[in-house]
Write a structure and sequence with these properties.
CATH superfamily of the largest domain: Nitrogenase molybdenum iron protein domain
Order of helices and strands: HEHEHEHEHHEHEHEEH
Distance between the termini: 74 Å
CATH architecture of the largest domain: 3-Layer(aba) Sandwich
Number of helices: 9
CATH class of the largest domain: Alpha Beta
Number of strands: 8
Helix content: 40-55%
Shape: globular
Oligomer: single chain
Length: 245
């Protein structure tokens, strides 16, 4: 009888420890360079997320962090950044000795999103939360593709928003960027006779594309203040639907 009670006590203690670990991992203080990293962090199961780049900054990689921003970084358990962000070095320097500093591969292609969310969840200790999010994402993304199905537009796309062409169910006829297209590239794009040009809100080609006779659709890679990646896909799907009529 004593043996049974002892085994039960050990099992209870182990279960309690497991619950404590999960709660602690989900409660990590995460500082994300931009709302894009924040979206990945939220999908992976993080709840306490602070974003450095404020809303309204069109090109996040060029942001210059303030001392108050770096103070937030110093208090973080986890710091997330992308290699292309010019201020990434400052974030890494400001991170406290206890912090995990993690480079995030920012790409909204569905398979890459799911892989990165799963990887971050492994760092956070929130694998179940990420698994739940991924299942919901698969359902939502399939519904968005179905919503856009049958339109068959001819698309040329900026390099970092090609995923939006996939959501519309087509392979882009041409890709430009990340630098603004040259005159020769514009001629090649125009020769494709596109229906839509997918431009990147953070790196807009703008007037450069005016000689290509197609409707310009601005795609935004960044989630809103709610850090909702799925919401970002929905907003861009609505933009595409409106453009397609």
């Amino acid at each position: 009888m004593k043996t049974i009670l002892l085994a039960a006590a050990v099992l209870l203690a182990m279960t309690g420890c497991g619950q404590t670990t999960d709660t602690k991992s989900g409660g990590l203080k995460v500082v994300a360079a931009s709302s894009w990293e924040a979206g990945f962090a939220k999908a992976a199961g993080a709840a306490d997320i602070t974003v450095i780049v404020p809303p309204g900054v069109n090109h996040a990689p060029d942001y210059d962090p303030k001392p108050s921003d770096l103070a937030k970084v110093a208090e973080a358990d986890v710091v997330l950044y992308a290699a292309f962000e010019g201020f990434a070095g400052k974030l890494k320097e400001a991170a406290g000795s206890k912090a995990k500093v993690i480079e995030v591969a920012l790409d909204n292609s569905p398979d890459k999103v799911k892989a990165e969310v799963t990887r971050l969840a492994g760092e956070f200790g929130t694998a179940e939360a990420a698994k739940t999010w991924t299942a919901g994402f698969d359902t939502e993304y399939a519904a968005l593709k179905q919503k856009l199905a049958g339109k068959s537009p001819v698309i040329v796309s900026q390099a970092f928003v090609v995923w939006a062409a996939d959501m519309a169910g087509v392979q882009p006829a041409g890709v430009y960027g990340p630098q603004p297209p040259t005159a020769a590239q514009l001629a090649e794009l125009a020769a494709k006779k596109p229906t839509l040009i997918l431009d990147n809100s953070a790196m807009p080609a703008g007037e450069t594309l005016s000689n290509v006779q197609a409707k310009r659709v601005v795609i935004n890679n960044f989630p809103g203040d709610d850090h909702d990646l799925i919401g970002m896909y929905k907003a861009n799907a609505d933009t595409l639907l409106k453009a397609l009529g």
